[in-house]
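Could you join me in thinking about how sequence relates to backbone shape in a protein? Would you write everything just below, so we can both look at the same thing?
***
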Amino acid sequence: MADDAFTEHRPLLFTIAYEMLGSAADAEDVLQESYLRWSAVDPGTVEHPRAYLVRVVTRQALNHLRTVKARREDYVGPWLPEPIRTTSDVNDDAILAESVSMAMMLVLETLNPTERAVFVLHDVFGYTHGEIAASVGKTEVTVRQIAHRARKHVHARRRRFEPDSDATRAIVQRFLLAATTGEIQALMDLLAPDVVEISDGGGKASAARRPITGREDVARFTLGVARTTITATTRVEHATYNGMPAALCHTDGELDWLLAFEIHDGRITGLYAMRNPDKLHRARTVRPLDRGENQPWKP
């Protein structure tokens, strides 16, 4: 019975943990810790298992987030959320798709742990301030203030977002063709004037040590990367990551990099290049996500 309940709600629990932590590995650790706590409880005493599990995962993720914050301060080069391969149905939920996008996840990184937990639970998953209060150890009034502050912060920094679609994938195809054929003008025509490219090598793979901004600089950087990494044995695979169109570059059978595309109004506004082998190692796993339907938080 306990296993069945946890398995049933696992996609929702993983989604909450991932959005709070930005790491699939850390989210899995939180789920494991939460499962151990859940298995020690008599399910017959829990009126709403999903609400109970959400509360447990929230508390565990919040504790975990406070520890990983310090670890990320020592990260070599730009840090990107661990990319997750998402299923097509994620794009049917606009709020969910945007909430796991690379741009939004980076904005969430600028919140403190409590702000992030409150924003994710309230604005993404629809829980009330009162329901959230017990999980974050604050009063309802304080949670309401935190939610207002976090929402204002996020909305001031959020980028325009369009989920993966046939139209966005066509733009990715044109981008890859221009990159491999060295057509810089064709590349620039696909990029927004304020496009930003962020590369994450984690100090373990070659990557730009700072974000690259502007159409011309991004185009030239892209061509440079293409010349040095794309060979006769390179295979490119198209997929959806974090609700965004993405290209996976395999060299000699190994996943060498993953490039996720942020596209709006027919132009590429953001490029997120993952080269950290630790994160790429886990990127092959498909992650079912779920926003669920809100329930009371009764234990």
The CA atoms of residues 6 and 84 lie 21 Å apart. The radius of gyration is 20 Å. Residues 49-72 form the longest helix (24 residues).
